Amino acid sequence: MPRPLPAPLAPAAPRGRTPPPQASSRRLSAALALALALGLGTAGAARADTLLQVFALAQHHNPQLRGARAAYAAALQRVPLARSRLLPQIRASAGVGDALHDETGNPLLHMFGLGTHWNYLERELALDATQNLYSPGDEAAVGQARLGADLAYARLAQADQSLMVEVAQDYFGLLAARDSVRSLQRQQDATELQLRTARAQFAAGHGTILDVRDAQARRDLLQAQRIAADNQLQLAHDALQTIVGAPVGRVAPLLRDARLPPAQGSGVDWARRAERDNLGVTQARLEMAIARLQLRRAESDGLPTVQAYARLQRASTSGGGPQFPFGDRVDSASVGVRVQWPLFTGYAVQSEQGEDTALLDKAQDDLDAARSSAALQARSALAAWTAAQARAQALRSAVLSSRSALQANRTGYGAGLRVSVDVLNATAQLYDTERQADQARYDSLLQALRLKLAAGRLDERDLAEVSALLQP
Questions:
Q1: pTM assigned to the model
Q2: Which of 126, 212, 235, 468 has most Cβ atoms within 10 angstroms of its Cβ?
C-alpha cells in the first residue's frame, strides 16, 4: 500500500492521491497547530541530537518548507473562490443625485413668462440577483482550482521529503567532519607517543636522528591538517543549522555495530515505481490536467452562457421650479433568463485555443521528461546504494588488516626491524581507513533515502529507521 505523503500538515491520504482541496480551514488549522507543537516541543528540549529530532526541528523552522505550507493554504482558498461564480450573486445598490432641467429653448415658457430651468433630486434603490445556469468556463475553472490545490500539496510533500534528504546529508556531513577531527586527533596522539619513543631510543643510543625527524615532521603536518579539519567541522555544523533554520546542538553518532539495511529490488522495479509515484512526476501529471482544463475554458469562450436574473427597483424624484413643483416614485420588478453568445471576438477565441493547445503539448513533454528523470534518479541511487554497501564491507575488512599491520610494525620497530616512518604510515593508514569506512556507511544510508525519494516513497518512518541506528 502507498504510504501517506509526509507533509507536516497533510491529512492522512494514500500516496499517489492528494487530499481534497476543499478541506476545511479547521482541519488545516489543527494540522498547523500540530506542526507548531512538534517544533516547539523539540526546541524546548536541551538540544536535538538524533536525526529524527533534527528533522522535526527543521520542519518547524525551515523557510522553504514554511513557504510551501503557506502556498498550500493559499491554494485551498482558491477553490471556494472559483466555485463562487457558480453560486447565486446578490447585489444591492443605492444612489442619490441632483439633476438640472433646462427648458431655455421652449417658446411656450417664454411666451407665458415662466421659468425655463429648475433642479430636482433623484433617488434609486435596487436589488439584483443572478444565477449562472450554463457556464462551462466557470465549471472548468473550479476543476482547475481543485487541481491547483492538489498541485500545491504535492509541492509541499516534495519539499518535506527533499528536506529529509537535505537534513540527512548535512547531518552525516557533520558526522564525517567530526570523524576527520577524531581521526587526526588519534593520529596526533599516536605520533606524539612515537616521537617520545624515538627520542628515548636515540638518547639511549638505540635509534637514529632520522626516526626523530620523521616523527617531528609528521606531528607538524598533523597539526596543520587538524586546523583545516576543525574549520571544516565548524562549516559542517553551520551548514546543518542553515538547513534546519535553528541552532543545533550535539548530534548523535552512528553505532559501530549498526546493521545497514540491504538494498532490495532491481533497478527496473525501482525505475517503474519512480515513473509512477515520484512527486515530480505527480506534479507534472497535475500540471498537464490543469492545462487540459485551460484548453476547455478557451473552447468554452465561444459557447453561449445562460443566466437567470431578478431585479427589484424603486426610483423617485422630487423638486422642480416654483411654477411646476413635482415628485414621482416608480417601483418595478423583473425576472427572466439571459443568453449571451459571442459571435465574433476578433479571433481572440481562436488565438487562445491555439496557445492553450501548445501549452498542453508542452505539459505532456514535461511529464515525459519528469518520468525519464525520475527513473534515472532511482537507478542511479540504487547503484550508489549498492556500491556504498560493498565499499563499507570492503573497508571493514581493510580496518582489520590495517590494525594488524600497525601492530606488526610496532613490534618490528621495537625489535629494530622497522623504522619510525613505517609505524607512522601504518598508524595513518589505520585511522584513515576507519574514517573512510564510516563515510561509506553514511553514504549507504543517504543513498537509501535518496532512492526512496526518487520513488516517491520516503516518509518519516524511513527517517526513524535510520535514526534508530544512531547512538542515543
A1: 0.78
A2: 212
